[in-house]
Amino acid sequence: MTVILGYAATILIFFFTYNIFTLGLNIQFGYAGILNFTVITFMAVGGYVSAVLVMPHADTANGIYYILGLGLPWPIAALGGVLASGLLGLLIGQIALRRLRSDYLAIVTLATGTLLYGLAGNVTSMFDGWQGLFNVPQPFAGFRNWTPLGYSIFFVIMAGIIFGLLWLFANRLYKSPLGRVMRAVRDDQDVVEAFGKNTFRIRMTAMVIGCMYIGVGGVLTIAYITALSPAGWTTGETFVVWAALLVGGRANNLGAVVGSFLVAVVFNESTRYLPQMPSHPNLIPDIRYILIGLAVILTIWFRPQGVIPERKNTFYEVPLGKDVNAKPGQTSLEADLAKVGE
Amino acid sequence: MSLFFLTLGFGLVTASVLSLLSVGLSLQFGVTNFVNFAYGSYLSAGMLFTWTFATKLHFPFVIAALAGVIFTSLLAVIVNEIVFEPFSKRRKSIFYMLIVTFGLSLVLDSVLQIFYGVGFEKFPITQSEALHIGPFDFTVVQLWIIAVAILSMIVIHLLLTRTSLGKQMRAMSDNPELAKISGVDTRTVTRSTWALSGALAGLGGVVLALNTVVFQTTTGDDLLFVIFAAVILGGIGQTYGAMLGALVIGIVTEVSAVWVSSAYKQDVAFLILVVMLLVRPQGIIPAQGKA
Amino acid sequence: MTVTDTELVRQGSDRTTEYALQVSDLRKSFGGVAAVNGATFGIEKGTITGLIGPNGAGKSTVVNLISGSITPDSGSVKLNGEDITGLEPHEIGRKGLIRTFQISREYPEMTVLENLIVSAKDNPGEKLFNVMFRPKLGKRRDAELVQKALETLLTFGLYPLRNEYAANLSGGQKRLLELSRAVMAEPTVLLLDEPMAGVNPALIEKLGEHIVELNQKFGTTFVLVEHNLEIVEKICSEVVVVALGATLAVGTMAELRKNKAVVDAYLGGDVHERVGS
User: Fold this and answer.
1) Is the Cβ of B148 closer than 8 Å to some Cβ of chain A?
2) B247 domain-assigned
3) Residues B195-216: what's their mean pLDDT?
4) What is the number of structural domains in chain A?
5) Structural domain count of chain B
6) Are the C-beta atoms of residues B129 and B139 closer than 8 Å to each other?
7) What is the pLDDT of residues B140-151, one digit of tens each?
8) Residue B100 and residue A300: Cβ atoms within 8 Å?
């Protein structure tokens, strides 16, 4: 029983963190049309930075190297990780969001991802190189004498609350005038610009908020599994988040949740236990990525709006009343109004 | 001083490799107007196909390389026919085209990895000793790489300026609407462009593998953004710009090893990309309406 | 206010003329080819002015230079007396000059009503701080804008389509949407780039009426880049002719028709047929 509950807790935590990644990408791509081709790098930055803030000084005597090691309380370290992620988004935005085609941003995000991946692996003094960070202290672990299961359940609740708050804010943003103008930028940036709105600022806002969301997911990931190495954030993992968003339905946060469930939980878990072939240890991961890639391509072909399409937004209207009929020179279309008024 | 010339020599070789690759990417971008994020996979395919022909089928190396290039070209044409062409017909949004190319790179890389694994491969050719040419030291293989690149650039130049196909490609690149109206067979030109782009990716992959000696399925993707840097530096969609960009990136990244560790070559390329995007995003030779 | 101004100009006294838009000696070349080569004209406040010229005369480039999409090599643009040369498009838009595009460019995946609401200026809800801490501000402004948008849609006959995705509108409806969207931004100058292109004659008539109505109701200055000379003659008090990237002539349609240079360069042989006089 304990094993099953522990497994369920782990799956739920993955579900929540993937939801957060997908919400972040949705704010970037679904709302504002920003192509972030290195989602997983922002996860890693959030995770790594929060880890080196929360961990004690590196034990260099035992060949473990990393920067900082400040031993800060987890909430502050977590905030640091999220801010670092947002800062990286800000830097990339500064380079690539200034009136450039969307290809450039995609290229710069991908390039940054490749670069940071190489740096994190090769520069051992930063985050312990290819070995990665491990033994990261878990949040509130010393709070009471947890049983392993008790702690997992606590973590599920914490992750759930964080996800809930982020979900509420993502929805508020979507419905706000800012979210609306982001979608307008997605649909036609030049027109928004011509209407006197600073599209650079608007896109940058979406970029940074999205990166901070993804950073939150990274912070939670490393806090739960207590370790992270470059092997855990290859380009393929970015695509898993893209698949979740596109299959679920972009520009609809409910779609993001459904997509995260389908891709990160159903698909990931069902392929996890496929038999390994000793002669081809990479066969299963490769097949997973092929399927993920195909899922995205086929979704764009057959159902670009995803399982749950973007909702149509309607507004509360004060009836225009008799004004409607008082207008002179009614057109045939306006004649329909008689029905609308009642 | 000798270190400078040594790195300058490396720079010329790297520039030669990059010139093939960036011209291949840039030509295709110019004609189809979207960036192909699966280009790195084509490049890997080129070297791996060649490796199969050379080591498994025991072809002489030049024949194996030729076969590798032809197969990569075919791959590019087939992918265009079954994926890009239908998508660009149905859905104009550039967002989706880019995501499709990105997804395709994941699929192709994984397929290559199933067949070739993750280990390092090596072409069955012997590395010759260095020859002294003026202040430079080149191996015979490196001289071959430079010769192949120069020859290819001349062929590309003649193709673009002397043949009807090349002129139509340029017309499509400059103004697709106008090209269509003036009777350019856009479908054939697009198909030929993909064939050429794939061939250059394959050839670039082979010479890259010759230069780095060992390679694996991800070698192509690792170089992808260096190619992007060269293409953007020259002016995206501009063939001659891509040649120039390759020359600059190739030499600067190698010569920078005089001052910084050669492990950071890629970072130097990234730095050039960033500075270029901040200062002159349209590239050295801007293409109208593409920045 | 504009009637007297216009009359004064007609009488040859431009001392009291107030310009909404002044373009002086604008130049822009692409790859050594001059697209705009010294265009100079002034557009009076509150008028409807046509900007005509043969294909390739540089009209579109002039529009792009005025609206800031591209920066001129030399020359200046003044909006209500203020130099706006080289400003970013959104800065120019904020100053009250709104432009439309040759091909109608709606926000396809947003509803008609949203297309309008999002086009209004200065919505406090577009600031992140307000979204986070003062969401009421945006909601209150939205409520106002919904009513204003509904009234505008009613005027333009798009009211029944308000909850339709803009992508699903017909070509003509999209043109009406563009114009009604522009109204929401309350521009002082509205620069319309071929607003009648690809529109049927009945709707051209209607669009023309809307433009005149907006001009009279709000005093909006209109600049119309247009090929349909019939509608230009009907609604424009003044017409600027551009040829080879420079201003060829300025005057009423009737005056231009007597101008040999204009007839040779643009109006040509079929002028009587097209203008219908």
Assistant:
1) no
2) no
3) 92
4) 1
5) 1
6) yes
7) 888 899 999 999
8) yes
Topology of domain C2-106+186-275, per CATH?
Rossmann fold (3.40.50)
In a domain? residue B192? yes
Pure H helices in chain B: 2-32, 39-51, 61-79, 85-90, 94-116, 140-162, 164-174, 176-181, 186-212, 219-234, 239-255, 265-279
For residue B95, which residues of chain A lie inside 8 Å, CB to CB? 29, 33, 35, 102
**Is the CB of A186 less than 8 angstroms away from the CB of C90?**
no
ipTM of the complex as predicted: 0.87
CATH of the domain at A191: 1.10.3470
**Probe site for chain A from C95, C148, C154 (most A CB atoms < 10 A):** C154
Q: Which residue of C has its CA nearest to A193?
A: C90
Contacts of A324 in chain C (CB under 8 A): 154, 159
Question: How does residue C256 score in pLDDT terms, banded at 50, 70 and 90?
Answer: confident
Cα separation, A246 vs A303, whole angstroms: 9
Give the domain extent around A116. 2-341
Which residues are registered as beta bridge partners of C19? C44
Residue type, B136: F
In a domain, B229, yes or no: no
Q: Is residue B258 part of a domain?
A: no
CB contact under 8 A, C160 and A312: no
Is there a contact between C143 and A316 if contact means CB atoms under 8 Å apart? yes
Q: Identify the residue whose tokens are 């890997």.
A: B44
Kind of pairing between the strands at C221-225 and C189-193: parallel
For B168, the domain range is 2-224
User: For the segment C93-114, what is each residue's pLDDT rounded down to a tens digit?
Assistant: 999 999 998 888 999 999 999 9
Chain C residues with beta carbon closer than 8 angstroms to that of A169: 132
